[in-house]
């Protein structure tokens, strides 16, 4: 799953005659006009769901959120760091590289591939915690949003139940903002998923984007 990795990143001059006239009768300016404030950085870090496997980048939920941010004139650049096939272990190994520059909002969408592969939940829990710890160390003031996931009971109902609980536990332990279930209203709906039954269609991504925005929007505003 999860493809978040396509990294997405988004003056008024006086006339020369006026400047020449002013220069002859006034002291030189002591400093240049200050540049516009730098945009804050909103980073989506995930797997093929974030990357938008099977759809155009602008159709994936991260791209749609970026369009919403732009339309509202919010001071954020949106970065899509989704990578197809990423597990929590892979994410933990690359998050430090991704955070070479600090971020202001970090959306963590990983774990689904762990669940589909039946990876021990202790490892998933440890890796998610490791990613959170790295974000807190590299970008101490960042808001961290955790996307909750659920899986079908292919690995047994007990595994599926505990898998869902991992995200709730990590969010509670670290005081993270939690999206209860990223694929709410999309998972299990054939008309909103591609032929693999896993990755959303463009219409499915629009539903996911609304789910994400309901949690993320208040943070950005």
What would your notes on this structure say?
- This protein has 221 residues and is an alpha/beta fold.
- It is built from 8 helices and 5 strands, in the order αβααβαβααβαβα.
- It has a 5-stranded parallel β-sheet, with helices on both faces.
- Mean pLDDT is 87; it is low at 1-36.
- Residues 1-17 form the signal peptide.
Spatial order of the strands forming the largest sheet: 2-1-3-4-5
- Total strands: 5
Largest sheet: 5 strands, parallel
Structural shape: globular
Q: Tell me the number of helical segments per DSSP (H or I, 4 or more residues long).
A: 8
Helical content class: 40-55%
What does this entry show, briefly?
This protein is α/β, with parallel strands linked by helices and about 220 residues long.
What secondary-structure arrangement, pairings included, does this model have?
Layout: H1 16-25, E1 40-46, H2 48-51, H3 61-71, E2 76-82, H4 88-98, E3 105-109, H5 112-117, H6 121-138, E4 143-147, H7 157-174, E5 177-179, H8 202-220
Parallel strand pairs: 1-2, 1-3, 3-4, 4-5
């Amino acid at each position: 799953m999860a493809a978040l990795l396509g990294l997405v990143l988004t003056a008024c001059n006086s006339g020369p005659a006026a400047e020449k006239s002013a220069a002859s009768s006034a002291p030189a300016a002591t400093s240049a006009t200050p540049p516009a404030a730098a945009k804050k950085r909103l980073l989506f870090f995930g797997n093929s769901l974030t990357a938008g496997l099977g759809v155009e980048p602008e159709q994936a939920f991260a791209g749609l959120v970026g369009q919403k941010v732009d339309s509202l004139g919010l001071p954020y650049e949106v970065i899509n760091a989704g990578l197809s096939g990423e597990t929590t272990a892979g994410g933990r190994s690359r998050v430090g590289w991704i955070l070479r520059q600090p971020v202001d909002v970090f959306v963590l969408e990983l774990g689904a591939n762990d669940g589909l592969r039946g990876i021990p939940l202790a490892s998933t829990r440890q890796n998610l915690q490791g990613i959170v710890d790295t974000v807190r160390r590299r970008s101490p003031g960042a808001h961290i949003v955790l996307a909750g996931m659920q899986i079908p009971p292919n690995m047994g109902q007990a595994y599926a139940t505990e898998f869902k609980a991992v995200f709730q536990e990590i969010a509670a332990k670290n005081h993270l903002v939690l999206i209860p279930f990223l694929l709410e209203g999309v998972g299990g709906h054939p008309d909103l998923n591609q032929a693999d039954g896993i990755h959303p269609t463009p219409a499915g991504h629009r539903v996911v984007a609304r789910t994400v925005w309901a949690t993320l929007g208040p943070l950005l505003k």
